[in-house]
Design goal:
Blueprint (H helix, E strand, L loop, with lengths): L1 H12 L4 E3 L12 E3 L5 E9 L2 E7 L6 E5 L3 E6 L5 E3 L12 E6 L3 E6 L3 E9 L2 E8 L30 H10 L19 H17 L4 E2 L26 E2 L33 H8 L12 H13 L3 H11 L6 H11 L19 H8 L11 H9 L3 H17 L3 H12 L5 H13 L3 H13 L5 H15 L5 H13 L6 H14 L3 H7 L6 H12 L2 H7 L14 H12 L3 H10 L5 H10 L3 H8 L4 H15 L2 H11 L2 H11 L2 H6 L6 H6 L12 H26 L7
Parallel strand pairs: 3-7
Antiparallel strand pairs: 1-2, 3-4, 4-11, 5-6, 6-9, 8-9, 10-11, 12-13
Length: 728
């Protein structure tokens, strides 16, 4: 009875198969053929978003996958059993501006591009893979830009290498009906030369077990009925049966949006590298027992000392200890990079390269390691702010200003404010004032920034140099002069920082401070970056320079006029030179910058008595000012009637009357309303001769004398009034 029950349970629990019996010609059943179960279907959908197109693959459960570059796009591979991709809904909601084509077979999904784009895949949650097709070039160091290896049997990823292959031995033991355990001992017939490799493998597995990251367990036996492989080790991305390696619930490496592995939170728990005890006590504890037997450094004690030095912000000292005592340690590269970053140096190609999009504190250190940050970089600002908030207070003060600078450079104002709030929890300090000043400058308030920067300069700490540079920028933005004492302070700092990474920023601020304090010759000499600093010095000269400064530096032939200035600067210089009575010197700047605004060109041409050029430029000026400049140009060209008509449209009666007078059009003047010309014109009106008291020639002569005297009096009166007439 019991064997029958066991047989019934085995039949009940056996995996379902579809069977088909074939009947022969003699009516007897033939061999049974098992048909495979149905292939699962993966639904592929898509959506259009601002700056990217999203493709979503729904597998329904956790899968292992690979993603890499092809000649015309990207390839997605699912590891393990085959699936069928349902592509019918892919183009329901999107066009083909980014995704040009998509095709699939049982093992892969091929994605074709129609733009200068790149792809970033990630696992939204187990079983749902998201592929974003983003505009622009891929992030630096993205592993998804590497091609995948040639396709083979995706059921298990191939293990490459030469010599002893432990995986082959595992598979042979799994498939052997007489062996169900894993043995790394050499067989009697194996090559003895491979024994050192086996010993090394055993040592590495033992070390992982002792560190608590590897849990060694014997594999389960094979099921002789279902013929399924045992539950195996997960050492690679794919399933690897034969060795059971168990770790934390999520033992996959954390990946950033660029596909690179991220340093874990446990490795970057900087706040745990020190305590609240006095620094002197911590020093003694951190450097105690560093030497072991035979006066050799203890690796764990050395790493503890390096951690403490980084905790208190001693980057250079920490880097020297790594180089001297632990150059080949597993954490050496990460600690070297941290040492550089803590001391304010960039380390773009170091340990944290490409980790700026991570969910771990690695995002913070990767951002600080970058020399410049672009808007296209996938910065995980939430992870950055969270990691910064968990730093010890001394590192928050040290790293806050440069971190806020980088966040503001990519428009992350909210994250920068969070950085300010995190460092402000320790009290109002120079570092807090400095960050607030950066926020003020980003919001277009240089006056408020000036107050915070002056407070930062007065405060203690190592931020005085950064505050001096910021103060110069805020004063230049306001267009106000700078005290010569600030330039003197920067000159001293420039000597101290010569040859360092900060030298360029200090030299730039020094040149601008010299210019804003009226020392233009010294400013031009100090400006080492001609492309960016020299144009700024010319702008300061145009706005703040005295008349003597302009005569000294701005009066020059067109061949010596500096190039690559913003148009506002040469326009200001030209107008100021023209106001000084030097229209020809102003014309040299216009010749060098013919796109200077038309109003300035017209006014300078009028002062140079160049009516044709003035009229041509005035026609480009809109509104009443343009019409007035045109009328003045017409007067200069001698076309007074046209000028009178232009003044008439402007409603300028006095200028209109003057233009008629210059044109000799007395009839128009007589028909005009009473004006200064009316008394003179009335004496010249011979159409109505006055009655003479005496008849004959004597009477006419007396009348002419009287009229002449009247005209003379009217002309004398007119001459006293003409200067009061407004002229263009």
């Amino acid at each position: 009875m019991i064997p029958a029950l066991i047989l019934f349970l085995l039949v009940l629990l056996a995996p379902p198969v579809l069977a088909q019996n074939t009947i022969g010609q003699d009516g007897t059943p033939q061999a049974t053929r098992e048909e495979p179960a149905l292939v699962p279907t993966v639904q592929v959908t898509s959506g259009e978003h601002e700056g990217f197109t999203r493709v979503v693959l729904n597998f329904g459960g956790a899968v292992d996958w690979q993603f890499g570059r092809t000649e015309d796009g990207y390839e997605f591979r699912k590891m393990g059993a085959a699936v069928r991709y349902d592509l019918r809904a892919v183009f329901n909601l999107i066009g083909k501006s980014r995704l040009a084509a998509i095709s699939a077979d049982a093992a892969m999904l091929d994605i074709g591009f129609a733009c200068a784009c790149h792809a970033i895949p990630f696992e939204f949650r187990p079983g749902i893979i998201v592929i974003d097709l983003r505009d622009g070039p891929p992030p630096k160091g993205s592993s998804f830009e590497d091609p995948l290896p040639p396709r083979g049997d995706n059921a298990q990823p191939p293990v490459t290498g030469s010599g002893y292959n432990w995986a082959d031995q595992v598979f042979r033991q799994i498939q052997s009906p007489t062996s169900a355990t894993l043995s790394l001992s050499p067989k009697p017939t194996s090559d003895p030369a491979l024994q050192p490799l086996r010993d090394q493998l055993l040592r590495q597995l033992s070390r992982g077990a002792s560190d608590g990251v590897v849990d060694l367990a014997l594999p389960k036996t094979l099921d002789p009925i279902a013929k399924k492989p045992v539950e195996g080790a997960r050492i690679s991305l794919g399933e690897m049966p034969g060795v059971a390696v168990q770790g934390e619930p999520n033992d996959k490496p954390v990946l950033g949006q660029t596909g690179l592995a991220c340093a874990s939170e446990a490795r970057l728990d900087v706040d745990s590298w020190g305590t609240d005890a006095p620094i002197a006590e911590q020093f003694s504890e951190a450097f105690a027992n560093m030497l072991g037997e035979f006066d050799r450094p203890d690796p764990e004690a050395v790493e503890k000392a390096v951690h403490f030095l980084l905790f208190i912000g001693f980057g250079q000292e920490a880097g020297q200890m790594v180089t001297a005592f632990m150059p080949d340690a597993p954490e050496a590269n990460m600690l070297r990079s941290l040492a550089k970053i803590v001391d304010g140096y960039a380390d773009e190609d170091g340990f944290f390269a490409g980790q700026v999009s991570c969910e771990t504190p690695a995002a913070l250190w990767a951002l600080l390691a970058m020399k410049t940050v672009g808007t296209g970089d996938l910065v995980n600002d939430q992870a950055v702010v969270l990691a910064y908030s968990n730093l010890p207070v001394q590192l928050r003060r040290l790293l806050g200003p440069p971190l806020a600078d980088k966040l503001l450079s990519i428009g992350k104002t909210g994250a920068a404010e969070s950085v300010r709030n995190a460092v402000a929890r320790a009290g109002k300090t120079a570092e807090v004032s400095l960050i607030e000043a950066k926020l003020d400058m980003s919001q277009g308030d240089p006056a408020a920034a000036q107050k915070n920067l002056e407070a930062a300069i007065q405060g203690a700490g190592g931020s005085k140099t950064v505050a001096l540079i910021g103060l110069v920028d805020s004063l230049v933005a306001q267009g106000v002069p700078i005290k010569s004492t600030i330039a003197d302070d920067l000159a001293a700092v420039a000597r101290e920082t010569k040859g360092t990474e900060n030298a360029a920023g200090v030299t730039r601020a020094l040149a601008l401070a010299l210019a804003s304090s009226g020392q233009y010759a010294a400013a031009f000499e100090a400006a080492t970056d001609a492309a960016t600093v020299v144009p700024k010095i010319w702008d300061i000269l145009a706005r703040l320079g005295t008349d003597t400064d302009l005569l000294t530096f701005a009066v020059r032939p067109v061949a010596d006029v500096p190039q690559d200035l913003e148009l506002a600067t040469p326009a200001t210089l030209a107008n100021r030179l023209n106001d000084l009575g030097l229209p020809d010197a102003a014309a040299e700047w216009i010749a060098a910058y013919p796109k200077i605004d038309a109003e300035s060109r017209a006014k300078i041409a009028l002062d140079r008595r160049d009516g044709r050029t003035a009229l041509q430029a005035a026609q480009e000026v809109e509104g009443e000012q343009g019409a007035r400049l045109q009328a003045a140009a017409l007067q200069l060209l001698g076309d007074h009637l046209a000028a009178a008509q232009a003044f008439s449209k402007l409603g300028d009666a006095k200028s209109q009357e003057l233009s008629y007078a210059k044109a000799g059009d007395w009839a128009e003047l007589r028909n005009s309303p009473p004006n200064v010309w009316t008394p003179v014109l009335s004496t010249l009106d011979v159409s109505k001769p006055a009655a003479s008291p005496l008849p004959g020639p004597l009477g006419q002569g007396q009348q002419l004398i009287a009229n002449s005297a009247q005209t003379r009096a009217a002309v004398l009166d007119l001459l006293t009034k003409i200067p009061k007439v407004s002229t263009p």
